[in-house]
């Protein structure tokens, strides 16, 4: 089984803003434990979100995570922008002189 969980942190942010943080944390801990830690059918999982998963926080049960951020080298060849995707807008806005800065 492969699990893809997009924007895992959105319900947590809403819980914080709306005042039901403790209840959500309890629910998420239980859900993540049974889904990601003790699930015998889980082969691989990917979680995305803007809040970094901390192994010392509510996710302390998930001690087997590999955190990959947008600045990680692990998948650098899979994400980002091509030169064309960067240079075209620069050219359209008359900023051709910035090509050299972008290549740094």
Detailed description of the structure:
The chain is mainly alpha-helical and 104 residues long. It has helices at 10-18, 21-37, 83-92, 99-103, and strands at residues 2-5, 44-47. It has two domains: 1-67, no CATH class; 72-104, no CATH class. The protein has a two-stranded parallel sheet with strand order 1-2. α1 runs antiparallel to α2 (21-37). The longest helix is centred in the N-terminal third of the chain and has 17 residues, at 21-37.
β-strand percent reads 5-15%
Quantity of strands, as a count: 2
The helix/strand order is EHHEHH
How many domains? 2
Distance between the termini: 41 Å
Categorize the overall geometry. elongated
Q: Please summarize the sheet with the most strands.
A: 2 strands, parallel
Q: Which residues sit in consecutive blocks of at least 5 with pLDDT less than 50?
A: none
> Strand sequence of the main sheet, in spatial order?
1-2
Number of helices: 4
Tell me, rounded to a whole number, the average pLDDT: 85
Question: Key terms for this structure?
Answer:
single chain; 2 strands; two-stranded parallel sheet; 4 helices; 104 residues; 2 domains; 8% strand; mainly alpha
Present the secondary structure layout.
Elements: E1 2-5, H1 10-18, H2 21-37, E2 44-47, H3 83-92, H4 99-103
Parallel strand pairs: 1-2
Helix pairs in contact: 1-2
């Amino acid at each position: 089984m492969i699990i893809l969980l997009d924007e895992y942190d959105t319900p947590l942010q809403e819980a914080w803003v709306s005042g039901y943080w403790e209840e959500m944390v309890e629910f998420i801990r239980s859900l993540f434990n049974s889904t990601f830690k003790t699930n015998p059918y889980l082969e691989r999982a990917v979680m995305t979100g803007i809040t970094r998963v901390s192994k010392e926080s509510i996710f302390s049960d998930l001690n087997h995570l590999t955190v990959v951020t947008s600045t990680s080298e692990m998948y650098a060849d899979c994400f980002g922008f091509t030169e064309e995707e960067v240079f075209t807008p620069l050219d359209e806005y008359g900023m051709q002189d910035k090509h050299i800065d972008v290549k740094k």
